[in-house]
Write a structure and sequence with these properties.
The chain contains 8 helices and 7 strands, in the order ααααβββββααααββ. The strands form 2 sheets. The protein has a 5-stranded mixed sheet. The chain has a two-stranded antiparallel ribbon with strand order 3-4. Helix 4 crosses helix 7 and helix 5 packs antiparallel against helix 7. It is elongated.
Length: 194
């Protein structure tokens, strides 16, 4: 399988990137499952998981008096063996985030690899796709894998403003230029998602 090449633009504007993904070649059951995805339900579920994750982030920061978050980075993690499709998302609380032109370099961390959220419906579909080697290695299968990751980014973009409005988030010590960044996998670019 040729892994999709991600750009920071894809991740910063996932709905636009998603609109360019061609899914008409998928088998009918997969097209039906794609069409049945409920964006609002997924955004609400993701928001709820992130609210629960805030508790752990706050607990980690409470152990570091005076610490302020410059960013939270979300890393999509998958299986350790091929096809490396993501399932879960982990969070690092960054003390510093360096901007290097259009890219980011994560600096010191206040906390590392705290749970953030599961990809849930998208993760289940990615897992099942990973078990169907023939489909996964096809152009429609590659398009579906790309589309599922992008759709999860659409949900993340929509859930983060809700998270920022939570009292628990507002109580976190953050820097004035705090951002959320995310990457869809190892060695993939980072992009601001909220």
């Amino acid at each position: 399988m040729v892994r999709p090449v991600w750009s920071a633009e894809d991740l910063t504007h996932p709905a636009r990137a998603l609109s360019a993904v061609e899914l008409s070649g998928l088998p009918a059951p997969w097209r039906e499952r794609w069409s049945a995805l409920d964006d609002e339900a997924e955004i609400s579920r993701l928001h709820d998981e992130l609210k629960a994750s805030l508790v752990g982030w706050a607990r980690a920061l409470a152990k570091l008096p005076g610490a302020r978050l410059a960013a939270v980075s979300f890393s999509y993690k998958g299986t350790e063996v091929a096809p490396y499709l993501p399932q879960d998302v982990w969070a690092d609380g960054l003390a510093e985030l360096r901007r290097d032109g259009p890219s980011f370099r994560r600096g010191a961390r206040h906390f590392r690899e705290h749970p953030a959220f599961a990809l849930c419906t998208a993760g289940v579909m990615l897992s099942e796709l990973g078990e169907d080697e023939a489909l996964l290695d096809s152009r429609p299968g590659e398009a579906l894998a790309r589309a599922l990751v992008l759709r999860s980014f659409v949900w993340l973009h929509a859930a983060l403003p809700r998270l920022r409005a939570e009292e628990a988030f507002l109580a976190l010590p953050t820097t004035p230029d705090f951002v959320f960044i995310a990457s869809p996998g190892h060695d993939e670019p980072w992009a601001v998602v909220g």
